[in-house]
Amino acid sequence: MGATWIHGIGGSPVYKIAQEIDSMKSDEPWECMDGFLDDPITIDENGYVLNPSLVDPISILFKNLMDFAQGKRISIGDVICAKDGNGNGSVGSFLRKGLEDYWELESRKLNGHGSWNGNGNDSWNRKLLEEAIFAMHENTQRTYTSANDLYNLDYNAESEYVMCTGEEITIAKGYSSIIESLASVLPSGVIQLGKKVCKIEWHPESEVGIIENDHDDARPVKLHFLDGSTLSADHVIVTVSLGVLKAGIHDSEDSGMLKFNPPLPDYKTEAISRLGYGVVNKLFMQLSPEFPDLDQFPFLQLVFHQSDSKVKNPKIPWWIRKTASVSPIYRNSRVLLSWFAGEEALKLETLSDEVILDEVSTTLSEFLLNSSDSHEQCNVNVTKNSSKVDLVKVLKTKWSNDPLFLGSYSYIAVGSSGCDMDTLAEPLTKSGSHPLQILFAGEATHRTHYSTTHGAYFSGIREANRLLEHYQSMGYN
Ligand SMILES: Cc1cc2nc3c(=O)[nH]c(=O)nc-3n(C[C@H](O)[C@H](O)[C@H](O)COP(=O)(O)OP(=O)(O)OC[C@H]3O[C@@H](n4cnc5c(N)ncnc54)[C@H](O)[C@@H]3O)c2cc1C
Question: The Amine oxidase domain covers which part of the protein (predicted)?
């Protein structure tokens, strides 16, 4: 339902653990266990299979632009993409400028004869199709970053982000095997589940003198749980999501959200407010047992028309129109997976299974059943004798509505910067007789590896080391 991928095996602590505990092998099939996702078929919303000669140049353009934005390449051939011309400094404006430049160069090459009708569909000229293909890649990028709108994703921060090197792979025995392994070294009873913290009492440096009178055991931090119990501590490492922190500072006193008493200092709450935290949801769908040839269900890239025009397919609901792909979770699997981000992901959370089944099934039918000639060309002919792609079951995530997450992962929004993540990571308090009362870890506190499990892991190690160094500096071994 959540993390599945090791985003680069080089230097990934998650990969190291997975290898050590033999989690990279399984007798059962697992999500993305084969290279199936390397071989997509791209179809437009009216059922026309798009030729790779049309799709590939736009896919390459998009990849080159993102590589440039992420600092992985220093130029993009003839496409002009200087930072200076980058509108409001967002990834979205940078990408669209790159597309405009590409079109300008192409039209110069064609001496102004740029209009082209492809795939037998008179209504879609080449430029509209290219824009729709570009938008498909933008929508994939939205799910990578969790930004509802790439115009809200900061451009400068993009090149600060660090990917682990090497292959991106999934864990055969699943991510829970990693968590179980990490938890297994702790003494039993240390992890207490079902204990929601609603308040963290702490003592700013100016107040440390009164601690001894305040708590019986003289420990400076007091956790208040929702069940009424409390726990005093010398140090607390807070790892709740950025969404939970945001809700705590923005909601009213009695909302049940995590509160700090006294409230976090302004510089912290301002950083929390500025940083981006979005929602990404997964939708799993099971094909009916009657579905004919499973091996023919493709890794389907979905191309939707962008402008309001007659070629927009009225049978497809708006909340599916920013979904970039549908694919079996491995070759021949009856289970399909799609990703949703932002507003569409929020809408998905509100829909009943029946509505989802009906509307996704209609959409897939529009893509796969409409134009059998084109399909035969690309061997997507499995469904041509059916009236509808029949789905029998769905399973969706609801990360935004889960009060323990309130979203999926963080990003650097326009108006914030990596410095805000460093600010979030700063401990309270740094000096005084009771230093390091509240420490902060979790993916949103890692300036270069945010939004990932390994970023979360690194941040936990960072804060554990901070405490170790503190006690070592006091003479403890
Ligand atoms: C759909 C989806 C797909 C993803 N895919 C990948 C992937 O493939 N690879 C990857 O590397 N990353 C992926 N991620 C991101 C990854 O899951 C997160 O970056 C990572 O889990 C963050 O870990 P964390 O410890 O910072 O926070 P979280 O995982 O959010 O953990 C925070 C914990 O705090 C607890 N909590 C919250 N409020 C309270 C409270 N008041 N009292 C007590 N406890 C509380 C929560 O229950 C939770 O256990 C994905 C995330 C999502 C949502």
Answer: 1-468
Highest CATH level, class, for 1-50+177-477: alpha beta
Specify the pLDDT at position 375: 40
Question: Of the residues 452, 462, 463, which should be mutated to test ligand 1's pocket, given the most ligand atoms within 8 Å of the CB?
Answer: 452
Give the number of other CB atoms < 10 A from CB of residue 114.
Answer: 15
Write down the pLDDT at residue 35.
Answer: 74
Ligand 1 atom at shortest distance from the alpha carbon of 4 = 8
Q: 391-428: b or e for each residue (b if 16 or more CB lie within 10 Å)? A: beebebbebbeeeebbbbbbbbbbebbbebbebbbbbb
Question: If you ran DSSP here, which 8-state letter would residue 35 be given?
Answer: S
The ligand 1 atom nearest the CA atom of 279: 53
Where exactly are the structural domains of the chain?
1-50+177-477
69 φ, ψ (degrees, to nearest 5): -60, -35
- Residue 55 has, within 13 A of its CA and on its CB side, a CA count of 17
pLDDT in tens, 257-304: 999 999 999 999 999 999 999 999 999 999 998 887 767 788 999 999
Q: What is the separation, in whole angstroms, between the first and last Cα of the chain? A: 41
Strands lying side by side in the sheet with 335-341: 40-44, 299-303, 325-328, 335-341, 280-287, 391-396
Confidence band for 351, pLDDT divided at 50, 70 and 90 = very high
The string of pLDDT tens digits covering residues 186-206 is: 999 999 999 999 999 999 976
* Whole-angstrom distance, CA of residue 429 vs CA of residue 221: 11
Residue 68: which of 114, 103, 102 has the closest Cα?
Answer: 102
